[in-house]
UniProtKB/TrEMBL annotation:
Pathway this chain belongs to: Cofactor biosynthesis; adenosylcobalamin biosynthesis
GO biological process terms held by the UniProt record: cobalamin biosynthetic process; methylation
GO function term, MF aspect, one: precorrin-3B C17-methyltransferase activity
Ranges where the Tetrapyrrole methylase domain occurs: 7-213
EC numbers, comma separated: 2.1.1.131
UniProt keywords, alphabetically: Cobalamin biosynthesis, Methyltransferase, S-adenosyl-L-methionine, Transferase
Lineage: Bacteria, Pseudomonadati, Pseudomonadota, Gammaproteobacteria, Oceanospirillales
Enzyme class: transferase
Signal sequence extent: none
Record protein name field: Precorrin-3B C(17)-methyltransferase
Length: 249
């Protein structure tokens, strides 16, 4: 049996947002490897072994996946959203570069998924309709000083900003500091969107301003978007729409 490795994105939550390409890969797989909550999204079936592991074990699970593929298994590594956005694709390639040279002969593919930032943007309109950047607010793999530098430079460049991993129980102070930096750099009237658990039954969308935002509006299931100076809010019956025009002054 010829082994292969596919690194896939399961989308933000809804099964309707899993691409047909990813569904086909899962149907062909002998093994699924990933963080336990994501592995649990793949239904068990005969001939499929599910290998779940804890958070912060990305390199270990990447090494496991590569070894299984080397042994002839058809392996799918699962991430939520898109695997190339703060997820498992980079971890697999990091393990590949450091691993046995034989692993480089494997058939390895990355299959894209719908990212949380794109699902969150679509839930309110098009706040990422012009130039934007995406920043992971977790300081597990980079120092806070670098995060703050990037926040200030993004604000200076007037990007709309999408933030992953804004606030966890282990580091609640980071997002409070993020809001302080953004208020200082952007002003209190700047629009901010809190999109939690998008496309799931627990979905919650809140549109407010930096001046009204509080740290407890975000958790690890929340994707936060801050608009640029150009970002506009359209009031209407029901939920408002938010968009950033395609042109800039």
């Amino acid at each position: 049996m010829s082994g292969w490795l596919k690194i896939v994105g399961l989308g933000p939550g809804s099964e309707a947002m899993v691409t047909p390409e990813v569904t086909a890969a899962l149907q062909e797989a002998t093994d699924v490897v990933g963080y336990v909550p994501y592995v649990n999204r793949v239904a068990p079936r005969a001939g499929l072994v599910r290998h779940g592991s804890d958070n912060r074990e990305e390199i270990r699970r990447a090494e496991q996946a590569l070894q299984l593929a080397l042994e002839g298994h058809r392996v799918v590594v699962v991430s939520s959203g898109d695997p190339g956005v703060f997820a498992m694709a980079a971890a697999v390639f990091e393990a590949l570069e450091a691993g046995d040279a034989q692993m480089r002969t494997l058939d390895i593919q990355v299959l894209p998924g719908i990212s949380a930032m794109l699902a969150a943007s679509a839930s309110v309109g098009a706040p990422l309709g012009h130039d934007f950047c995406c920043i992971n607010l977790s300081d597990n793999l980079k120092p806070w000083a670098l995060i703050e530098k990037r926040l200030r430079l993004a604000a200076e460049a007037d990007f709309a900003m999408a933030f992953y991993n804004p606030r966890s129980k282990a580091r609640p102070a980071g997002f409070e500091r993020t809001l302080d930096v953004l208020r200082e750099a952007c002003g209190p009237e700047r629009l901010i969107i809190f999109a939690r658990a998008v496309s799931t039954p627990e979905e919650s969308i809140r549109v407010t301003t930096l001046g009204e935002a509080t740290p407890d509006m975000a958790d690890m299931r929340t994707l936060v978007i801050v608009g640029s100076q150009q970002t506009r809010l359209i009031e209407r019956a029901g939920a408002p729409l938010v968009y950033t025009p395609r042109s800039a002054d």
